[in-house]
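Reply to dn_fold:

You asked what the input looked like. This is it:
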Amino acid sequence: MLSKDALARLQDATIFWSIRQGTVAEVIEAACDCLVAGVDSPSLRILAGVSPSESDQEMLRWLEPTLDELGLTFHPQGSQDGENAVQIMAARLLAGAVSPRELARWAHSAIGHEGTPLAEELVMLDDVYDTLEYCGETEAEVDARVVAEARRLTSTGDATAATGSAA
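and this is what came back:
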């Protein structure tokens, strides 16, 4: 794994953790991947050694300093940083890691109708999937709309965090 890929995976893991869609174990695994890829910092070594069974508080003790040392952005848990997460998931669709239906379902469950405006179309498309027999569209047509939306999302704003790595 290249150091750039490992850093992007760590950033992705912390973003998903911040919106309660990722776990402490996933953040720690990404920290370990950074070390294996040759990325190193004092706090990163400690973060990689935190037990996944530890509380969020123990990870938090080392997460912010680690991200700061590595030039990454810290997102506090519960920060509702859904926009970055939506862009990451859209990139995963385009990379073939998730299906259009999975992306729409994820947006609906993780972000919801009251979440970030960036996810509104995907959330609505999940509702369309649920009503295919009544709405006059085929699943393939809705899939195409989801893919088009994913392309729009990954070209909007700063999608550099969207790596296509698995959560």
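DSSP finds nine helices and no strands in the chain.
Hope that clears it up.
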